[in-house]
Amino acid sequence: MTSDRRSGSGDPARSLKLLWRVPEDAPRRGPQQRLNIDTVVAVAIGLADADGLDAVTMRRVAQRLGVVPMTLYTYVPGKAELLDLMLDTAYLRMPRTDTAGQPWRARLTAVAEENRAMFEEHPWAATISTGRPPLGPGLMAKYEHELSALDGLGLDDVEMDAALTFLLTFVQANARSAAEARAARQESAMDDAQWWAANAPLLEKVFDPTAYPTAARVGAAAGSAQGAAYSPEHAWEFGLGRVLDGLAVLIDRPAEPAGPETR
Asked: Which among 41, 38, 39, 28 has a CA at the least distance from the CA of 74?
């Protein structure tokens, strides 16, 4: 994966200072700046939302702001750091549902839905690898909020972090698949039913259902039930249910019996 699709690929010290808005050690000389980091990030997010992450270049952001590219580098040192700022800003703006007192499945479902909504608003965010996440205020607020859904369930700290990662990995994978399905419809200018109708005559000529009886039976049943070979909504409902079932093995496990009392 290229650096422009991976968070934390720039200078971590520079990114952290920008994320937390740490002032420069020495005041800048020269004319007063007429832009600020928030404005730069807002324009970059707008470009990514409209045209995808590849549309975000320092040159295009500068053009939208009405400045020359070299001016932009006085605010953000490069695209890698800009990506960190964009992602953290998206995290900071996410809704945070108050689920205090609700069952754990409802709390984790709310966390999943919040992330799904963020990916729908910013599809580019689902394409970014976050193995080295930008530890900015948005991420920390998000992490604190999401861990609260797992707190008090009998999990140790490592299990809490792993359970959250397990849930969010599913959400991001589902968001990527949903975005790819939307892109396929847009590029072909056909919905799934139209695409299958257009290709059915050729498929009937080359596909022998007797050679692949299970695939033919299951594929036909799934396609009929979902209205397409792949349904992001069905994948979401089915997958989230199975993720929660898997976590139930940990969360609902019987308490270990207490050891013999020390006399």
From this structure: 28
pLDDT tens for residues 127-175? 998 888 879 999 999 999 999 999 999 999 999 999 999 999 999 999 9
Phi, psi of 162 (to 5 degrees): -65, -40
DSSP codes, 67-134: S-HHHHTTT-S-HHHHHHHHHHHHHHTS-----TTS-HHHHHHHHHHHHHHHHHH-GGGGGSB-SS--
CB 25 within 8 A of CB 73: no
User: Tokens at residue 146, please?
Assistant: 């999401």
pLDDT digits (tens, 9 = 90+) for 37-87: 999 999 999 999 999 999 999 999 999 999 999 999 999 999 999 999 999
Please, what sign has the CA dihedral across residues 70, 75, 77, 81? negative
Which residues lie across from 201 on neighbouring strands?
Answer: none
Check the CA dihedral 133-38-44-68 and report its sign.
negative
